[in-house]
Write a structure and sequence with these properties.
The protein has helices at 3-15, 18-25, 29-43, 59-82, 84-87, 104-113, 126-134, 180-184, 196-207, 221-229, 239-242, 274-287; strands at residues 48-50, 55-57, 92-97, 118-123, 140-143, 152-167, 177-179, 188-191, 214-218, 235-238, 248-254, 259-267. By secondary structure, it is of the alpha/beta class. The chain has 3 domains: 1-81, Arc Repressor Mutant, subunit A, CATH 1.10.10; 89-155 and 260-285, D-Maltodextrin-Binding Protein, domain 2, CATH 3.40.190; 158-258, D-Maltodextrin-Binding Protein, domain 2 (3-Layer(aba) Sandwich). The strands form 3 sheets. Strands 3, 4, 5, 6, 7, 10, 11 and 12 form an 8-stranded mixed β-sheet that branches. A two-stranded antiparallel ribbon has the order 1-2. The protein is elongated. One of its GO terms (molecular function) is DNA-binding transcription factor activity. Keywords: DNA-binding, Transcription, Transcription regulation. Pfam families: HTH_1, LysR_substrate.
Length: 289
């Protein structure tokens, strides 16, 4: 087994094809194909299912990818250790968040201290955050519920209740609170399945023998906000994420309080990376933990 063979396999697996892997490694496609073929022949295994349109991992390939993820991450950490001062002057920190505003104050302070570091920020629900961390497509996640298990290092940012909200000209805009039964009579605008806010709200309703059925299902918090602002129905969000929008009015849910925890998380095995550690340390110092 040779390093170049594992590197070729790993790049094909994460790129989804031989051509893209060749481009990433600045090699020709035949060279990449040859390295993977030799690896498969030497150990008499099939690592990829190949057809004309796509390349997918076999079961053995998926197991090997889990190992090479750790292998190349360890290599990256070794490189960061040897080039520590350079790592904090350059490089990219990839963050995926279910709500970016929870870390805006941390981002500002981080960029002020490490102006040479590029920060990539994208949005996603809880499932997207966790899968992105496991697949090494993100370094740090921000999500609305701290996952169980010991795979992650976590830093709690805040806990706030779930509230309802309507447009400022909605007939319910003058109400201070609504019961779950009253909400069930209204057209509801809810996040996609996989959203922890929706899951917690539905669990609360079920415990109260109330069924909350969405009239409109929208992907992403901003989509829900814009639909509700148009007057199309009642939306739900954690109080910390409601923000300030003159078009919208918050309404307390008259039910047992259901809190949304917002946390920074990263894979424990990657928490030693210089950029990840610098960001977590700064977040911890700003949160007072």
């Amino acid at each position: 087994m040779r390093y170049v063979q594992l590197r070729a396999f790993h790049q094909v697996a994460i790129s989804g094809g031989f051509s893209r892997a060749a481009e990433a490694l600045f090699l020709t496609q035949p060279a990449i194909s040859d390295q993977v073929r030799k690896l498969e022949e030497e150990y008499d295994v099939l690592l990829f299912n190949r057809n004309k349109k796509q390349v997918t991992l076999t079961t053995q390939g998926q197991r090997l990818l889990e190992i090479t993820h750790r292998m190349f991450e360890t290599e990256q950490q070794a490189l960061e250790l040897l080039t520590e001062s350079r790592a904090l002057r350059s490089g990219t920190l990839r963050i995926v968040a279910d709500a970016a505003h929870h870390l805006l104050h941390i981002l500002g302070a981080f960029r002020a201290r490490y102006p040479g570091v590029q920060v990539s920020l994208r949005s996603g629900n809880t499932e997207t955050v966790i899968s992105s961390l496991y697949s090494y497509e993100a370094d740090i996640g921000v999500l609305g519920e701290m996952p169980a298990g010991r795979d992650f290092e976590m830093l709690k940012l805040n806990s706030t209740p779930i509230i309802a909200f309507v447009s400022a000209d909605h007939p319910l805009s003058g109400r201070k609170s609504l019961t779950l039964g009253q909400l069930a009579q209204e057209p509801l605008v809810m996040r996609e399945r996989g959203s922890k806010t929706r899951k917690k709200l539905e669990d609360l309703a079920m415990a109260s023998n109330v069924e909350l059925k969405p009239a409109i299902e929208a992907e992403g918090r901003e989509a829900v906000r814009e639909i509700v602002a148009s007057g199309a129905g009642v939306g739900f969000v954690s109080a910390a994420e409601f923000g300030h929008d003159s078009r919208l009015v918050p309404i307390v849910i008259d039910a047992p309080e259901t809190l949304m925890d917002e946390a920074l998380i990263c894979l424990r095995e990657r928490s030693g990376g210089k950029l990840v550690r610098a960001f977590l340390d700064m977040a911890r110092s700003m949160s007072g933990d």
